[in-house]
Each structure stands twice: as structure tokens, then as C-alpha cells.
Amino acid sequence: MLISDAPRRAPLLEFKDVDTYYGELHVLKRVNYRVDEGDIVCLLGGNASGKSTTMKTILGLVRPRSGTVSYAGEVINTLPTAQRVRRGIAPVPEARRLFPRMTVRENLEMGAFTRIDKAEIAADLERVFGLFPRIRERLDQIAGTLSGGEQQMVAMARALMARPRLLCMDEPSMGLSPHFVDQVFEIIQTINRQGTSIFMVEQNANMALSIANYGYVLQTGEVVISGEAGSLRDNEMVQQAYLGEMKAREAC
Fold first, then answer.
1. At what angle do helices 148-160 and 104-111 cross, to 10 degrees?
2. What are the pLDDT digits (tens) for 87-126?
3. What residues are paired with 169 via a beta bridge?
4. What's this model's pTM, rounded to 2 decimal places?
5. How many Cα atoms within 13 Å fall on the side-chain side of residue 94?
6. Are the C-beta atoms of 154 and 108 separated by less than 8 Å?
7. pLDDT tens for residues 51-79?
8. Minimal CA–CA distance to 246: which of 186, 214, 185, 204?
């Protein structure tokens, strides 16, 4: 079901009829996505819908059996993960996935492991401090001792140290307090305004759609609805499936 099909720019990231499998288990079924330069695109769906497999496919951890994944006009189906990062795709993984026994500084340095431009790395470190002032205060702290919200900030900062053109975020609000959720989504918008395109898998449909340009709803490996974020928020199926809890809170 396509809600909006207005003419759009050439995509930065595009899935065309992508099928992915785990053995004989068909996980993504002729999936089509696109992320335009400068946009925030969100992917909604329940558990086992294929959201995490989508992220793994973008990063090269899972390869399509058929269809194409293109980035900046180049088919990247067989490109290794490290090469994708060098080309400008950076992940913020689900559950942060920091190096817990390393310091915050060392985690940030790992984000820049594909780079050799020391002056620009230093400049990006200052940019990160501007976005996340708390990180500067905790540079020498062991990452595993940070709060969940602080760890999420470090995970986002680490990804930005790769100087990405496309930031891929997997459940950025997972496990965070409401205060940190609001803060994280504000920072996502700031990162986007500074020129980074964002593809975001997120369970918090209301927050995701409130900042996204475009969205997709995935069910059992198939895109069942796509459209402008405002149209998705007004769609009855999306409201019942993903926004009902939010509306119930508003009614109280």
C-alpha cells in the first residue's frame, strides 16, 4: 500500500527487490527502500519483521540472494563491511555495542579506524563534543560504567567519527529513559541538519515519524506501507498498530 508517490531525487541508498535468507528462511521479500540525500527515513515494524536484517544487509553482514543494494549510485551487494564504512556508511548498532572495557576516548578512536587524516579527526572530535558535552567530561571513564543514555551518546559519537554520509541507527531509543529519548532524537535532528542522511530502525513510531521525512512499515519481511512521515502518522493502520499506546497516553 503506497500512500505517497511524488517524484523524488536520486537516492543515496536504495534497495531494489531485495530478497535475503538465513539458510532456507526467507526474511526480506522483494523489499524496496530508498534514502534521499539529506533525509531522515524510518523503518517501523514489530519483532521478527526483518528490521534488523535490513540493517545487516545495508552493512554487508547479510548479502541478498537476489535484488540490489545501491549506495551513491554503486551496487554494493558484495562489498565488505569495512569498505562500506570507508565509503560513508556508519552504524549505530542496537544496544549500543560499545567496547565496555575500553575508555570513552578509545571507543571514539575506534570510530575513526578507517581514517588517517589526523587534523580532520581532531576537528570531528570537537564536533562530537559540541553535540555531546557530557562525553568530554567522561573521556577517560570506562565505557561499560556509563549509564544507558550516556552509552547511546557514545555510540552515536563513535559512528560520527567515521565522518559518515549515511548514518544507520538501529533502535536508538531502546532502553532509555523518556528524558534521554527526547535528547537523543533532538541530537539526531541536529546531526541531520549538519548534513548527514539518516536511516533509522525504531520501535518508538511516534518519535520516529515526528522527525522523519519518509517512512516504511515492514511486516514479516514485506513493506506493507510507505509514504511521507506525516501521511503515515495519519494512516489508520499505522495508528492502530504503532501509535495506539501513544494516543492512549494523550487521552489520560
1. 30
2. 999 999 887 788 888 999 998 988 888 788 889 899 989 9
3. 92, 200
4. 0.86
5. 11
6. yes
7. 999 999 999 999 999 999 999 999 999 99
8. 204
